[in-house]
From TrEMBL:
Transmembrane segments: none annotated. Residues 186-605 form the TonB-dependent receptor-like beta-barrel domain. Belongs to the TonB-dependent receptor family. The lineage of its organism: Bacteria, Pseudomonadati, Bacteroidota, Chitinophagia, Chitinophagales. InterPro entries: Beta-barrel_TonB (IPR000531), Beta-barrel_TonB_sf (IPR036942), Plug_dom (IPR012910), Plug_dom_sf (IPR037066), TonB-dep_rcpt-like (IPR039426), TonB_box_CS (IPR010916). This is TonB-dependent receptor. Gene3D superfamilies: TonB-dependent receptor, beta-barrel domain, TonB-dependent receptor, plug domain. The keyword Magnesium does not apply. The keyword Phosphoprotein does not apply. It is found in: Cell outer membrane.
């Protein structure tokens, strides 16, 4: 099956190039796309050597019925374990071979964290509904200089919708699907002379499937249901021509049933709540801007299992003020300072209600359009109350040729701070842990050819992480691991006709985790990466048959991968291989008017039997259909 997929992908790319050469209609040229996540202010992709992927609002609208995890799972170099498992199954981000705790997630540029979790580096993707997302920008590679601790594999910036075109606009959708799934969203947005606003409420409920896989087909494994409510609001207050203030609020909660482990049925339950609120302010200068962000996050989780009831309560505060200024036509500067504080509320710990905080000044210098040459030089100095100080830097040159070809390279360092549960938690905590440190090398090229109808991008990378924290056989967290990853990514986007767009990608990643002796001189053993396939790829074809009818087809391939078999009696883990799989989805949309559409998502059309995580079930053929309106 793997060879068939590669042949299919190669043949598809060849046909795309031939089709692009034969027709001269619509232009794409992603080098002209403006992004904000790469540098914290608006910049064309052609002016930065950072690798950014944008999931547009149009793509999100034409993926109705899919979760954020499923959208991300369709991006090159990114595997979300559990994305197509039971909706209540936790979603693990594996980005360029790195584990889930090395990716920073932002909402409108503000990092969101779960201080109560073991990883502590990102929020549960299940909390974020897709319905009010304007776009998602995925920034690849180590980004600790711009975004601080944890941004070792990359950054995911979820940008929410703002305002509207008139004073009051109401929108919504209603969906029905397999496994007795119902989802509804209603929202209102608008704009007046001095105010814009956006409000939305989403409800999702499903009977789900059995989270654990019933390999013996006993039929006795019950369904594990999932129920979620989410509310989002932001208000833009245009105090003057130059000053805008934007308070925001996001509240999300879900209830989920979950099983006792791989191949093990169970009656466990979890109730989780997430609050994210704060304010953002932007003051526009003649040649730049000043922005200040404040965010507060709170996560509460209550889990009921055979071990009893466990409650987790984490709080996170973040303040960030920065500004950029165009010194000359060819030089820009960015400078800022960030303050973070996290707290775990638990009086039963040896250190009751532990907290940690840090202050991080950072700066970057950008040289642009020097005969096509662009360069970013950046650094951040983090003063941490627990483990001391840390300096990270970025060197990112790129060269743009005739607005058509960009070559780039990056050398960047990053770090990940120990979490509060690593330092003070109930199980194996170690207050003497050091931060994990990373160094990443990256290079590649991006090309726009055939009259800007075909965009190609290729990237190679190598990442080394030392002092990796792991849980040893003595039941304690220690800094004795090293992780080394390398790989490459290939992407192609072609729009040979106004009504046709095709995207294809392929990613290769390999690496190992080495456990070394306490002296750092001897390797005790080495493990290959778990839950990360070496080979993954996909192709998506979208075609607007007529102004009212759109259809797309999406094929994704995951190669075989390693996983761990967990023994619930001995608590020991042993390696196991998970087979490769290919999935085929389709989406159909009919616009019955300018203000409404009917749509349906057909997922896993071939009803493929596969595993994302060893011992856990996945969705077979399933459908989500609905209607949307806007007036």
């Amino acid at each position: 099956m793997q060879k068939k997929f590669y042949a299919f992908l190669s043949g598809g790319l060849l046909l795309l190039m031939q089709g692009a050469a034969a027709q001269d209609t619509t232009q794409t040229n992603l080098l002209n796309t403006v992004v904000v996540t790469a540098t914290k202010f608006a910049k064309k992709q052609g002016e930065t050597g950072k690798v950014v992927t944008v999931i547009s609002r149009e793509q999100i609208d034409r993926s109705r019925g899919k979760s954020v995890a499923q959208l991300l799972n369709e991006q090159v170099g990114m595997v979300i374990a559990g994305a197509n498992s039971n909706p209540g199954k936790n979603k693990e981000i594996y980005f360029r071979g790195a584990t889930t705790n090395y990716t920073t997630i932002l909402i409108d540029g503000i990092p969101i964290n779960d201080a109560s979790g073991l990883t502590g580096s990102n929020i549960d993707l299940r909390f974020i509904p897709t319905d009010q997302i304007e776009r998602i920008e995925i920034l690849r590679g180590t980004q600790s200089t711009m975004y601080g601790a944890d941004a070792i594999a990359g950054v995911i910036n979820v940008i929410t919708r703002k305002g509207g075109d008139k004073a009051v606009s109401v929108s919504g959708d209603l969906n029905w699907g397999s496994n007795r799934t119902v989802k509804g969203t209603v929202g209102a947005n608008g704009r007046t002379e001095n105010i814009d606003y956006n409000l939305s409420f989403t409800h999702l409920e499903t009977d789900g499937i059995s989270e654990a896989e019933d390999t013996l087909n006993t039929g006795k494994f019950d369904r594990d249901g999932y129920k979620q409510d989410a509310f989002m609001a932001n208000i833009g207050i245009h105090a003057s021509e130059k000053l805008t203030l934007r308070p925001f609020l996001m509240y999300s909660k879900f209830k989920s049933d979950y099983d006792g482990g791989s191949f093990t049925d169970g009656g466990n339950k979890t109730n989780s709540e997430f609050l994210h609120t704060g304010i953002s302010g932007v003051y526009t200068l003649d040649k730049g801007m000043i922005q200040a962000n404040y965010g507060f996050q709170k996560v509460n989780r209550a889990e009921t299992s055979s071990f009893g009831v466990s409650n987790y309560d984490g709080r996170n505060w973040i303040g960030d003020i920065f500004g950029n200024y165009n010194v000359t036509d060819w030089m820009q500067v960015l400078a800022g300072v960030e303050l973070r504080k996290s707290q775990l509320l638990d009086t039963s710990l040896s250190t009751p209600n532990p907290d940690m905080h840090n202050t991080s000044p950072y700066a970057a210098l950008f040289f642009r359009n020097l005969g096509g040459f662009n360069l970013e030089l950046g650094g951040r100095y983090t003063l941490h109350n627990t483990y001391g100080n840390n300096f990270t830097y970025t060197i990112n040159p790129s060269y743009l040729i005739a607005e058509k070809v960009k070559v780039f390279a990056t050398l960047a360092t990053g770090f990940k701070a120990p979490t509060l549960t690593n330092l003070y938690g109930q199980w194996g905590s170690n207050p003497n842990l050091e931060p994990e440190e990373a160094r990443t090398y990256e290079g590649g090229a991006e090309v726009s050819v055939w009259n800007n109808k075909l965009d190609l991008r290729g990237v190679v990378f190598k990442r080394d992480i030392k002092n990796v924290i792991f849980y040893n056989n003595l039941g304690e967290y220690v800094n004795l691991n090293e992780q080394n990853d390398k790989g490459f990514e290939l992407e192609a986007t072609v729009k040979p006709a106004k009504s046709l767009q095709i995207n294809a990608y392929y990613a290769f990643v390999e690496g190992s985790t080495n456990t070394v002796s306490s002296t750092g001189k001897d390797s005790l053993y080495s493990d290959v990466l778990a839950r990360r396939p070496k080979h993954s790829g996909g192709i998506n074809i979208g075609y607007e048959i007529c102004p009212h009818l759109f259809i797309s087809s999406n094929v994704r391939f995951n190669g075989e991968k390693n996983d761990l078999r967990f023994d619930p009696v001995t608590y020991a883990s042993s390696p196991v291989m998970v087979k490769e799989f290919t999935l085929w989805d389709m989406y159909v949309e009919y616009r019955y008017s300018k203000k409404g559409r009917l749509y349906a998502n057909f997922n896993n059309i071939t009803d493929t039997k596969y595993n994302e995580i060893y011992g856990y079930g996945t969705l077979g053929f399933n459908v989500m259909a609905g209607i949307s309106f806007n007036f």
